[in-house]
Amino acid sequence: MKIWIDALTPKHYLFTRALEDKLLGESHDVIVTTREYEELERVSSRVRLRSQVSVVGRHGGGDIKSKLEESVKRTELLARLVPQLSPSLAISFGSPEAARVAFGLGIPHVLICDSPHSEFVCRLTVPLSKYLLAPWIIRKNKFTAYGISAKRIITYRSLDPTAWLYRREIWPEKNEIERESEGAIVIRETEHMASYVKKYANFEEIARRVSERIGDKKVILLKRYERILERRGNLIIYGGDFFGPNVLEKAFAFIGGGGTMNVESVLLGVKTVSLFPYRTEIERFLESKGCLKKAEGWASLLAKLQRVQEACRLELPDAADLIYRSLKVRGIIA
């Protein structure tokens, strides 16, 4: 089969890298489209795909009008490109443009999604998808509310970051900041330009307070949308290239403002406190296992960080393998 995968974010890209191994191993032809997006380019410059890649369109930034305009432009570009590629299946991880173009061209679209809280993306992708694959801990009614029948939802008993965490051969060599993270408290800002984020914490202020209160530890704040390397005593403010697992695996603790790195941190056995502005079912699951502490503000964060003891380790199967097998069993992939 000729399979088109649209990857829009670092997570999408790394998931694609794992899935293409399975697909290429079975002699399928894989074509990947991405977009111009600084966060994505920081990963794609260090982790290479094996498949043909086309960069189509760009990220719309934080403004809703710009998001709309860039999405419309990207949809038009894909509508011209995809017929030339002639795929028989489309896969995305929440791409409104891929879902719309695939639907319009009569190509079955498979959505892989663990983020029903991303309302606008789900509204634009879930109803147009032939099948939706999601982790088993997310209730199906979270997705059926967007207009897909429960019988078209396929669940897998794993969490998405296993797909790239279990493939250490794709991990790039560590850069300076990734080496410096050993024994440090690592902090990651919320993806404040995401359509679903309405409010978020001031992470520079949080990082400053943590560095002052816990002076015997190096504190590294990972910035978004800003190229910066600034050192203030034991605090490092960094906005540059990094590979999440490299910066997390030997950290003392992680304070996360986003969903994916929180899960990566837990799966790598790092003590994790979440400042993600949503309480998702994945976070509830990790909390119930004692693997993650949820904080609501500075006072809560400090208390949770000081109470975090040894991190737990979850033993989960490879999500890419489970997804591939599910697609094979149901005849979605020949």
> Which structural class best describes the helix and strand composition?
alpha/beta
Architecture (CATH level 2) name of the largest domain: 3-Layer(aba) Sandwich
Largest sheet: 7 strands, parallel
CATH topology of the largest domain: Rossmann fold
Approximately how much helix is present in the residues?
25-40%
Radius of gyration, taken over Cα atoms and rounded to an integer in Å: 20 Å
Number of strands: 14
> Which band does the percent of strand residues land in?
15-25%
Shape: globular
- What is the overall pLDDT average? 93
Order of helices and strands: EHEHEHEHEHEHEHHEHEEEHEHEHEHH
Unreliable stretches: none
Please report the number of helical segments.
14
- Tell me the span between the first and last alpha carbons: 7 Å
Which homologous superfamily in CATH is the superfamily of the largest domain? Glycogen Phosphorylase B
How many separate structural domains? 2
Strand order in the largest sheet: 3-2-1-4-5-6-7
Highest-level CATH class of the largest domain: Alpha Beta
